[in-house]
């Protein structure tokens, strides 16, 4: 899914997953693979050893893997140069526990270890069926202020609204899974030279707040609900992904073929 000349990390990292088409809802049956969250739970984040201590991530800049899950894409408007969408971002990372401006490293380690121990208890009592513990809604803000977490931005957004509060899970093997839902109106440039047989490439750039770049960001997967394949006038075809060399941002390039029949 990397563009020409871009580094293809899929060969080395199990979290770089294949593109696929969804049916019915974002958590329904799939053509191939599965929903990002299901893949993580069933294959990628299983507990491999009975170690009660924290595994310290020694990376100065931890890796962050994102999945962009589009629930709806609409209003592809060549006259206004905009596209509107609803989507949910999933993020996966192994924290460095260096603390935050609001909290010390010791507090970050203590809080995270508390969640890891609870997740391990669930893992053992369920014979491996339950691998994680959810951070309660009234504890999410404390978690985000204590442990470094993604602060995403969309530089070319004309309008951006967070339509659901972040959700966080801590896995028994010490990974964090975060997700948050957004509604966006994004600026785009249309190439209409081949109209009405045109194919539009629509880049959506996802970065990190400039005063708080904490992660080496990789967009690992893009997924769609069935609504994204019922867009009047357009056929949604396979997207591509670019990773910016410095790891501060990534680009999802959506491809739409005009339905001229």
Compile the SSE list and pairings:
Layout: H1 36-44, E1 63-77, E2 82-93, H2 105-125, E3 132-134, H3 140-146, E4 152-153, E5 157-171, E6 176-187, E7 199-208, E8 216-224, E9 234-243, E10 250-258
Parallel strand pairs: 1-8
Antiparallel strand pairs: 1-2, 2-6, 3-5, 4-7, 5-6, 7-10, 9-10
Features:
261 residues; mainly beta; Acetylcholine Binding Protein, Chain: A; six-stranded mixed sheet; four-stranded antiparallel sheet; 3 helices; 10 strands; 14% helix; 37% strand; disordered N terminus
In short:
The longest helix is centred in the middle third of the chain and has 21 residues. The chain has three helices and ten strands; from the N terminus they run H-E-E-H-E-H-E-E-E-E-E-E-E.
Characterise the protein shown here.
This protein is mainly β. The chain has a single domain, classed as Acetylcholine Binding Protein, Chain: A. 14% of the residues lie in helices and 37% in strands. It is elongated, with a radius of gyration of 19 Å. Residues 1-32 have low confidence and may be disordered.
């Amino acid at each position: 899914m990397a563009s020409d000349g871009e580094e293809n990390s899929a060969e080395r990292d199990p979290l770089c997953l294949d593109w696929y088409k969804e049916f019915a809802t974002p958590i329904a049956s799939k053509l191939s693979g599965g929903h990002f969250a299901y893949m993580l739970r069933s294959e990628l984040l299983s507990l491999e050893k009975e170690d009660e201590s924290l595994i310290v991530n020694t990376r100065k800049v931890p890796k962050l893997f994102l999945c962009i899950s589009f629930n709806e894409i609409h209003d592809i408007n060549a006259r206004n140069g905009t596209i509107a969408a609803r989507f949910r971002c999933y993020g996966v990372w192994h924290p460095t526990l260096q603390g935050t401006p609001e909290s010390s490293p010791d507090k970050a380690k203590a809080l995270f270890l508390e969640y890891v121990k609870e997740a391990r208890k669930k893992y053992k009592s369920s014979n491996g069926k339950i691998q994680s513990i959810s951070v309660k809604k009234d504890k999410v803000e404390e978690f985000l202020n204590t442990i470094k977490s993604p602060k995403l931005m969309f530089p070319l957004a004309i309008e951006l609204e967070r339509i659901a509060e972040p959700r966080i899970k801590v896995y028994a093997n010490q990974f964090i899974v975060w997700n948050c839902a957004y509604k966006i109106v994004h600026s785009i440039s249309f190439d209409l030279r081949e109209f009405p047989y045109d194919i539009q490439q629509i880049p959506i750039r996802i970065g990190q707040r400039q005063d708080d770049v904490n992660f080496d960001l990789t967009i690992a997967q893009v997924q769609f609900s069935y609504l994204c394949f019922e867009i009047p006038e357009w056929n949604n075809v396979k997207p591509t992904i670019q990773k910016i060399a410095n790891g501060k941002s990534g680009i999802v390039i959506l491809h739409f073929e005009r339905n001229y029949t």
